[in-house]
TrEMBL record:
The keyword Transferase appears for this protein: no
Native organism: Prymnesium polylepis
Stored PROSITE patterns: EGF_1, EGF_2, EGF_3
Annotated InterPro entries: EGF, Teneurin
Regions crossing the membrane: 161-183
Domain EGF-like: 8-40, 42-75
UniProt entry keywords in alphabetical sequence: Disulfide bond, EGF-like domain, Glycoprotein, Membrane, Repeat, Transmembrane, Transmembrane helix
Annotated S-S bridges: 12-22, 30-39, 46-56, 65-74
Gene3D superfamilies on file: Laminin (2.10.25.10)
Name by which UniProt lists this protein: EGF-like domain-containing protein
Length: 213
């Protein structure tokens, strides 16, 4: 018919620009070397060559834009940052992400000594890291108190051994006293508890009548 872009009642935009065929679904099936909804892009080329503000992905024919640029052809600027962050930060969607030692909407506020690399700059004041002090965070604290990590101490092999050794010694003293008390041993007649552990019979240590009685 007069409209060469119509196939079986289906219409493709711009007749696929002569670089493809129109499918019954109304979409273009591009010839080799072409891409896009209208087959109007040479594969490996991007819209307007990304206007010089991005790189072309030859596989997808899409632009990968440089920072601060957006759009299909990288021809749109992201919201600008105040004073371009004064060269002391990075602009992210119109907001400055300042480098260490700088603050403010445009990163123009400087902290003393840029906090010596040991703190964050906020409203021209340094917030020092633990262990550092001073207006510029340059003074190392002489004494730094760190919280005790009881979990580490609990799993220390030496402390674990000392704990069980102390408990065992205390238990032996108590048991030794009770056994001596029950057997009637008093004072110097008391027998150390460990001797009971090697005895064949506790009866060996029971008090016997005196020969003079």
């Amino acid at each position: 018919g007069l409209d060469c872009g119509r196939v079986n009642g289906t219409f493709c935009d711009n007749n696929c620009t002569g670089h493809g065929t129109c499918t019954p679904l109304g979409t273009c099936q591009c010839y080799t070397g072409y891409s896009g909804t209208e087959c109007d892009q040479v594969r490996g080329s991007c819209p307007q060559n990304c206007t010089g503000h991005g790189a072309c992905d030859e596989t997808t024919s899409l632009c990968v834009c440089d920072p601060h640029y957006t759009g299909p052809a990288c021809n749109l600027l992201d919201p600008p940052c105040p004073a371009d962050c004064s060269g002391r930060g990075r602009c992210v969607r119109g907001i400055c992400r300042c480098k260490a030692g700088y603050s403010g909407r445009d990163c123009s506020v400087t902290c003393p000594g840029r906090c010596s690399g040991h703190g964050d700059c906020t409203n021209a004041t340094c917030s020092c890291e633990p262990g550092y002090t001073g207006a510029d965070c340059s003074v190392l604290n002489d004494v730094t108190v760190y919280p005790v990590d009881w979990a580490v101490l609990a799993y220390s092999p030496i402390l674990t051994f000392l704990f069980y050794f102390t408990c065992a010694a205390f238990l032996m003293i108590v048991l030794g006293y009770l056994i001596n008390y029950c057997l009637g041993h008093r004072g110097f007649a008391a027998i150390p508890f460990y001797t009971y552990l090697t005895s064949s019979s506790i009866a060996d240590y029971q008090l016997k009548p005196s020969a003079n009685m």
